[in-house]
Amino acid sequence: MTILRKLLLLGSFVMLCSNCQTQTGGLNVSGGSVPPLASAGTTPSSETRSGTESAGTQAAPLSGAVIDGQNQKPIQAATVFHSGLAVRTGPDGKFELKESDPTKPVMIKASGYRQTSISLPEGRKLKVALKPFDAKGLYLTHFGVSSKLLRNRVLGLIDETELNAVVIDVKGDRGLLSSRYEIPLAAEIGALKLPTIKDARAFVSDLHQRNIYAIARIVVFKDNILASAKPEWAIIDTRTQKPWVDREELAWVDPFRKEVWDYNIAIAKEAAKAGFDEIQFDYMRFPTDGKLSVAKYSQPNNMENRVKTINAFLQTTAKELLPYNVYFSGDIFGYTPWNYNDTDIGQKIEDVAQHLDYLCLMVYPSGYHLGIPRYRNPVQHSREVVYYTLEKAAKRLDGQSKKLRPWLQNFKDYAFDRRPYTGTEIKLQIQACEQARSSGYLLWDPSNKFKHTADAMKALRPAADQVPSQVAAKPQVAQ
After folding, report:
1. C-beta of residue 117 within 8 angstroms of C-beta of residue 98
2. Which residues in 43-76 are b (16+ Cβ under 10 Å) and which e?
3. How many angstroms separate the CA atoms of 143 and 316, rounded?
4. Cα–Cα distances in Å, from 39 out to 21, 96, 216?
5. How far apart are CA 347 and CA 320, in angstroms?
6. pTM of this prediction?
7. Cross-strand partners of 358
8. Which residue among 345, 431, 440, 454 is least crowded, i.e. fewest CB within 10 A of its CB?
9. Which domains does the chain have, with CATH numbers?
10. Is 174 helix (H, G, I), strand (E, B) or coil?
11. How far apart (Å, rounded) are the C-alpha atoms in residues 234 and 249?
């Protein structure tokens, strides 16, 4: 794995790169076949149901309210799932389902809170208090998790600081699965040949015993193993008629292919069954580096098709994960809030936010090669870059700052002056998240060494009860 995974190699501040062509057999997503969750007070169509219903047990309605367990205020847009039906709460935190089944639990989740699952009460009226929660996590790679030294370093940092979460590769950058999940296709193509976690369920259970929130990272469309084994599902190089590869010489699968969706959703379900609290998709986009002009897809490559495809994929995944009551997050380019096109990768922030519980913006200052307005050298202004990007994102999401949980830079600068990211730079980024009221943060270090992380956490402690100092005067940002 290289740091290039997270580089925001954008060709300009507003417009970027391109790719694509046509091949038979691809998925046509123009119809938008998956319905969204219903709003409060309505009953979703039968298409939102999952599983087999028990005859004669759904007659009585189910209603209630979801509130913040700390301040008792209503929670809007919480997801309530029961007996194959899903609905979101209204501004007053209330919801209603016209059918219920006393043999099945009611599952509730909301961005910025811990999810819960409860039995159906006799009166079929609920008042559910959710516990506020902000994940503050570190990352372990496919091989990092198998290293006792690296694993213990990460877990030790979590034990000794306010950090409370860990992101684990379930499917990493090279397509390998970290455990022997029950997925026939994965076994067929060799994705299970190098497991690094013997028993995923036991591993996650151990994390939970340590009060650690467990996030399963799944790299989606960058998948050298699947593309090599199933070239008919791959992006094709028109020069060689073989799978197209990026600058790392790794092949990508075609985002338009439904078979690729099914494979990654199957992996997500297995991770949910293993007990992970959250499923996080990475590379859920079209590629940005490599010779894009020779990349051939199964659908024409244009913004409309890209956006529809990514949206439909995320919507389908979110629906399939509802019965598992896990959070669903996705890694998003840091420039996405500043761009009003799809950044040529299929990601529009307002669109993806409809289907994700958390948007994990990659706000690494080193990745902003053009900076942001008034801050053209981002590594000299780590706090401002992170804060104003999160502020911009929250505005475009109508103030939903709790849907934002950014990735922060915990590695040496590679684009400007090569400075190490010491405790000071890490601290400034975290303070920006606190001021922007994001739902925590994640620290990215592909080496898993997390140098200077302890220094940053120590530096934050004395100011824990103080109001964070203000960032520089707000720049005028072009709309």
Report:
1. no
2. ebeeebeeeeeeeeebeeebbbbbbbeeeeeebb
3. 30
4. 38, 9, 29
5. 21
6. 0.87
7. 329
8. 454
9. 3-30+134-463 (3.20.20.80), 46-51+58-130 (2.60.40.1120)
10. coil
11. 14
